[in-house]
Amino acid sequence: MLRIACPYCGERDYIEFLYAGDAAREMPALSDTDIDRWTDFVFFRDDPKGEHAEYWQHQHGCRQWLKVIRDTVTHRVISVTPAIEAGLQADEDKVEVA
Amino acid sequence: MADALSALASVYDAGPVGVTRATPGVTLQERPARNLVQLSGWPENFDTICDRIAALLGIRVPVDCLTVTTHDDLSIFRVGPMRLWFVSDTNSTRLSEFLGTLEAKDGVVTEINHSRTVLRIRGPEARTVLNRGLPIDLENGAFPEHVFVQSVIHHIPVLVHRLASPDDTVFDVYVPREYARSFWEWLINAAEPLGGQVLEVC
Predict the structure, then answer these.
(1) Which residues make up the CATH 3.30.70.1520 domain(s) of chain B?
(2) Which pLDDT score is estimated for A88?
(3) How far apart are CA B187 and CA B133, in angstroms?
(4) What is the mean pLDDT of residues B6-32?
């Protein structure tokens, strides 16, 4: 049984959550006209063995979007972060890189 | 305004359910429509709104998504980090006045009175009945009075609130109106082996 520790509601069964996709993808810039990069972003996904970043929504609880790092081999949940915070962190990282 | 019709009107029969016991293991009762208002805030100023609620309504907004705070007849459920439910049995003038002060930049106010059917489940077997479908520990240590959870029973999203009571274990369960009949059927089935009693709508 997969159980996810929601930062707001506590540890819950996965039936309360909605899997919402791969969180490791990075969307090309809207001005990017490279068809291969867009094709890769829209249609192709990695299938990693081990840690994987995913978006989940606590659909039947607080309804918050979460970024979950999960081991695809053992289903162990390694970390859970509110997506809004993870997103802000990513934005800050981008600023630092720039 | 026309009175709201209960979603359970055609299936609600007061009386014993299942096995007969000297005292019912659990009582089931629909509560009349309550005043239920949802406030969804914005990240930039939600703390300020919470301070205004404390100042104008005299109720501290819960710090987590599990606790209910109550003052007089008005309760606040923090159903999300920036989403509140105001619940009362009567029309609260103070609440109306406070909501009237809110602008779009403060948050979004939605009346959801008629979107939920509220059921009161009481008695020594109340936990057992709920735990037939609710994957949450309802024992005293894990789920004390004034605590609530949002979860799923019978594939139906529910909010379960434990009320303060010196005698019995008492829960109010908020069920989306569109699933109320399905939930009621599940509840009756779950209560039958434990000896239940459906009470008149209070």
Answers:
(1) 35-113
(2) 57
(3) 9
(4) 91
Write down the architecture of domain A3-97 according to CATH. 2-Layer Sandwich (3.30)
Distance CA A41, CA B128 (A): 49
Task: Please report residues of A whose CB lies closer than 8 A to that of B83.
Answer: 62-63
**Residue B6, number of CB atoms within 10 A of its CB:** 16
Average pLDDT, chain B: 92
Q: What is the pLDDT of residues B146-171, one digit of tens each?
A: 999 999 999 999 999 999 998 889 99
CATH 3.30.1360.120 positions along chain B are: 15-33+115-198
Within 8 A of A13 by CB-CB distance, chain B residues are 135
* CATH H-level, domain B35-113: superfamily: Heterotetrameric sarcosine oxidase (3.30.70.1520)
Q: What is the ipTM of this complex?
A: 0.87
Do B83 and A16 make contact, defined as CB atoms within 8 angstroms? Answer: no
A 10 A CB-CB count for A32 gives 11
B150, β-bridge pairs: B159
Cβ atoms of residues A91 and A68 within 8 Å:
no
**CATH homologous superfamily for the domain B15-33+115-198:** Probable tRNA modification gtpase trme; domain 1 (3.30.1360.120)
Cα(B179)–Cα(A14) distance, rounded to whole angstroms? 21
CA–centroid distance for B102 within its chain: 25
B14-23, B34-43, B107-116, B174-183: least confident range? B14-23
Nearest chain A residue (CA) to B134:
A13
CB-closest option in B80, B83, B151 to A12: B151
What is the spatial distance between Cα B55 and Cα B65, in angstroms, rounded to a whole number? 21
Please give the Cα distance from A36 to A84 (Å, whole number). 29
